[in-house]
Amidohydrolase
Amino acid sequence: MSDTLPTAGYVTGPVVDHHCHGLVLRDLDRPAFEALMNEGPGSGRWTGSPFDSMLGLAIRRHCAPLLGLEPHADADTYLGRRQALGHEEVARRMLGAADIGTLLVDTGFQPDEICSPAEVAALAGDTTRSHQVIRLETTAQDLLAEGTDPKELRTAVRQRLAESEAVAAKSIAAYRCGLDLLDGRPTDMEVAAALHRQRPADGETWRITDRTVVSALAWTAIEAGLPLQLHVGYGDSDVDLLACDPLHLTAFLRATQRYDVPVLLLHNYPFHRHAAYLAQVFDHVFMDVGLAVHNTGALSRRVIEDTLELVPFGKLLHSSDAFGLAELYYLGTALFRQGLHDVLEDLVMRDELSEADAARIGRQVAAENATRAYGLGSG
Amino acid sequence: MSDTLPTAGYVTGPVVDHHCHGLVLRDLDRPAFEALMNEGPGSGRWTGSPFDSMLGLAIRRHCAPLLGLEPHADADTYLGRRQALGHEEVARRMLGAADIGTLLVDTGFQPDEICSPAEVAALAGDTTRSHQVIRLETTAQDLLAEGTDPKELRTAVRQRLAESEAVAAKSIAAYRCGLDLLDGRPTDMEVAAALHRQRPADGETWRITDRTVVSALAWTAIEAGLPLQLHVGYGDSDVDLLACDPLHLTAFLRATQRYDVPVLLLHNYPFHRHAAYLAQVFDHVFMDVGLAVHNTGALSRRVIEDTLELVPFGKLLHSSDAFGLAELYYLGTALFRQGLHDVLEDLVMRDELSEADAARIGRQVAAENATRAYGLGSG
Amino acid sequence: MSDTLPTAGYVTGPVVDHHCHGLVLRDLDRPAFEALMNEGPGSGRWTGSPFDSMLGLAIRRHCAPLLGLEPHADADTYLGRRQALGHEEVARRMLGAADIGTLLVDTGFQPDEICSPAEVAALAGDTTRSHQVIRLETTAQDLLAEGTDPKELRTAVRQRLAESEAVAAKSIAAYRCGLDLLDGRPTDMEVAAALHRQRPADGETWRITDRTVVSALAWTAIEAGLPLQLHVGYGDSDVDLLACDPLHLTAFLRATQRYDVPVLLLHNYPFHRHAAYLAQVFDHVFMDVGLAVHNTGALSRRVIEDTLELVPFGKLLHSSDAFGLAELYYLGTALFRQGLHDVLEDLVMRDELSEADAARIGRQVAAENATRAYGLGSG
């Protein structure tokens, strides 16, 4: 932990960040930095700068000292110092301060822009390990582009999952058809028929958006026994947030529970209470509040507290959902530590929780739950 | 009040618990106890123990001292002591500490597993009274099984409501067809036609799931002038929570308001702000946050505070929604007292509320509102 | 600021109230006052008095001293004193204490009951300015009643918008067809066909409820470059709140963003986190939590804090949404100042925000954002 957020005593030690992306490994000017800050369009006529947000305040308050600046340094000072140090040094400082033991890295979004899982891990520390999370829709599109027969798609995806070293599969159903996934695995003929209907025109590339196909991909991961991550809730303007309420997954979760394969609901904000309910009533459902934590900055404690109302303590995970900017790995992790610690400490102060239990819950959520869900072992 | 939660000075005196169930009157081993704790599946491969939750912490913190244990006793110590004392002694201590004046008991769920309203009242205290809440769907299914002509079902239900001593009817529309009830009473012919379509196969029993029939039953209670309780929101994995948002009731509430019969929205979490809105804009709508209070444990104050934002003070009720475990009557009641008191006290400390008003609101919510809504009298 | 809420140091100076209505300029007895208090039906058999609510507490606590009474005066004392002073003196005190620099007044609801924008401004202070917000559906209905050819409606509305001095248009799509507005401007022929289908019977008046027509009106404002206010969320029992979730606007917002015309989401409670998300991902979207602030009274800080989690600081506005009662202008404004100040001050105390930034955010939200969004100039 950085000394800028020093008091998270119940949530110490290396964390497992069970969902993040790669870093952009180049120096960034202000527009490029702002475009990567949040789910919005960067700076804008009406928005002004994305620094005028809880995330912007958090960067100026907590990241500035890691670059040797005073807390609350202004945006230009911050970005000037960032460029002077160089992106690699900044990444080493931010990821080092985050104290990350293990990273699970989604490699399916803008892979040409960002670095590999191994590169993130190397910047995070000598002992940090990384694992791949493989994206289902991208994998399927690649296979179709390579000439896979649509009737064989499911089998081919399953084989590719087996060949990969991925510890989890990820579905972006939320961006493609919404979360109302089918409560039974579609047949290969149904998949082929759906693909036929949405095959690309000559010269265009495959883009899987059909509910039958997206559902089949999610079921393929479940049947392969591979933990399934699902984007839920909060995202950019391409998402239809109403269709991303995790409650739309209810029938799918009811149908998949007998497989005992973890289904991990990512982000969830502003539906995090809904996700916590699902994690309570379905044994195989896990959740996090990644992405929301660094975006809500110093107000993120509330999001964590809302979530703890119902979530079983063994099913809450940590993720940063960081993409591109080193600051997001640090803030996502440090603010989550701090917010969870603050909630636990408040319960201890009110004598609603023992110190020993608080420390145990901190360890579970920070690392042990993810280690167990993904079978990461200790090696 | 137990001395473990001693400070709820604005919410003192015997409460009316306007919605609970019976107790399981036998000693319980750990798996049996855990299976009754919350809306989840009990212990599980990924969940571990349901004690690892806010409810589990609350049992260990607040129920343990009632059994003569230290606060925060571990689960095995707690359950061992519980078995040594015997379920009846535990029930007397828990229900006694809850200080319940009147219980309204739903007798329609797993009646073979749980004790009668009179038995709950006897365990709760010498002066505790109980009343029955009659379940509409169960009553109708019983009548059909007894050979009632589907065309006569509505009349037969109404007669059975009149013959019963129930002070309220309850609908579990949420579990059967969702809350989008019809905004006019279906005719007997429409009910008969719907029942004909869903009549059971030979050897099977009636299970009413049709929206027309469920709506007709709710309308029957309204027309009979019997307060209507509705399960809303939070429930187990059989529920489709999206269909249980109380806002789906808007058209039904608009149509029924002219009858001046109380409609009482139960639980409501995580849609409790929605329910509070309905209680503000419809005169005949009441609400509670039962079930959510003991499940969210030491974090339940937030749920109560969210609710108070809009709910008229004369339309918030207390319920535990306890089922089976004596602990849930105690925690549901004690935590609600404490949470409501804490919100009121905070307002008094900030000089936003006078002490006299705080005490008046406490009395209203704890008992007077329910007494008025159900016409319970003082006798 | 009144000395009853003296500490809002980060949110001082005259505000822009970017959405309110006129005052009822006559003395009111208790039933008449209560009927205007909130979105409910006034006093009622089950509700008792609307004074038994957070709003009622706020009036007794914060408005009573402005009438020379003790804080927490009871309702009858308050209303007696109010009548003795006379409505005009009460209005001068309340609106003066609110410290309003500029009012944007919606003139489309019950115009015979309430005073004009200029009259509100005159009561608010010597230097207070007012501007009209023109209601789209009312304008269109007026034009149709005047004999405008349905095929020409869009052109006629656009001309009337241009002729008016309104600084914004307002749509009450929420009350007419829900917020799922079309993501492209309907053609004049489509509008005419839709109007033909819903033309009034002889002797009846036009009431526009068709989604195509309501969408066309919203698009007309966008194409005219006039900022578009939309009622979202919280309203009276005529609204179907589920259809008023701002997320239903997603496709419309995606389609309109290229016009760079501000779209201003009003009220938003209990979907204010949803609105804040939209304000983050769409550059042209602004929001407020008006109406909810005075209704939730001393609990309104939470609503403001929820909102700040994601909203860009340059896109949060202040509105009272006051209608009829002078108290609502005062409370809507004073409580918003106080709540926003409290959140900012708490962040400053925790060293998560600098004092200079807190003051800047206070100024932006209180006045500068609205001045910029509506091009109000400083003159």
Summary: The longest strand of chain C covers residues 100-106. The longest helix of chain C spans residues 326-349. Chain C touches chain A at residues 245, 247-248, 250-251, 253-254, 260, 262, 273-274, 277, 280-284, 286, 305-306, 308-315, 347, 350-354, 357, 361, 364, 372-373 (CB under 8 Å). Chain C has a mean pLDDT of 95.
